[in-house]
Amino acid sequence: MCELRGARVASPDRRDARPLLDGVDLAVHAGEMVAVAGVSGNGQQALAELLCGLRALTTGSLHVAGQALAATPRAFIGAGVARVPEDRHAVGAIGDLAVWENAVLERYRSPAFARAGVVRRGAAEAHARHLVERFDVRGVEASGLGAPARRLSGGNLQKLILGRALLGDPGLGDPGATRAPRLIVADQPTWGLDVGAVAYVHQQLFDACAAGAAVLLISEDLDEIFALADRIAVMHQGRLGVARPAAAWTLGEIGLAMTGHVVDAELTDAA
Fold first, then answer.
1. pLDDT tens track for 101-139
2. How far apart are CA 156 and CA 92, in angstroms?
């Protein structure tokens, strides 16, 4: 479903010779969840941005469903890539926009929501209403879908973002008819959430994977990784180790790998 080969992303700072990603190989197949563990700042953010069209490869290849994509978010969304970004407030939503606007934020150009560049508010609100009901987004009962998204609690805002990602492309004229995403890039999807919201997010990712989506989970929470992942790889200084079955890892081994204590050969092939 998603395959990276020899992926290198140079640092935007010309004074820094170290690349953000250095020869990364990774394959995530339909119906499986692969987790990337690592200490923050070792290239995980660059990997997430690369797989959402926010960064371009310097060298190497990237294919989604066998297709090479232009390095634009629009191209990746069109190919069925969904994202749950690391920072739900700064990146995942625009707090001053209404809940219904945030629900279609990544697909406002879709024919389902726009005609001749003009937003079809009725269709967008119907889709948002379906999303709110399907993903149990609370906090809009009194003020409605026109309330600014910043009024939602952290857990409910994350449900809104998660629902927007998992519902995929809307069907024309039918808010309940959607095309599920092929690849889901979930970057720290449960940061700062309470226990109930964490369990809800985990179940939604499980369900999406069981329905055939490929899921890439980027997390610093090792308990979360062991609870969810089919395979686990560790990232250190922009290099990605082999994605091994979760049962093949111990906490101690992952801890060592996160500090760079790994066999060099294991950093050369993450297929």
1. 999 999 888 888 988 889 899 999 999 999 999 999 999
2. 12
pTM: 0.91
Q: How confident is the model at residue 13 (pLDDT cuts 50, 70, 90)?
A: confident
Question: pLDDT tens digits for 207-257?
Answer: 999 999 999 999 999 999 999 999 999 999 999 999 999 999 999 999 999
* 209 within 8 A of 195, measured Cβ to Cβ: no
Q: CB–CB of 153/192 below 8 Å? A: no
SS in 3 state form for the chain? CEEEEEEEECCCCCCCCCCCEEEEEEEECCCCEEEEECCCCCCHHHHHHHCCCCCCCCEEEEEECCEECCCCHHHHHHCCEEEECCCHHHHHCCCCCEHHHHHCCCCCCCCCCEECCEECHHHHHHHHHHHHHHCCCCCCCCCCCCCEHHHCCHHHHHHHHHHHHHHCEEECCEEEEEECCCEEEEECCCCCCCHHHHHHHHHHHHHHHHCCCEEEEECCCHHHHHHHCCEEEEEECCEECCCEEHHHCCHHHHHHHHCCCCCHHHHCCCC
Domains annotated on the chain, with CATH: 1-80+181-271 (3.40.50.300), 90-178 (no CATH)
Write out the two tokens for 93: 């939503």
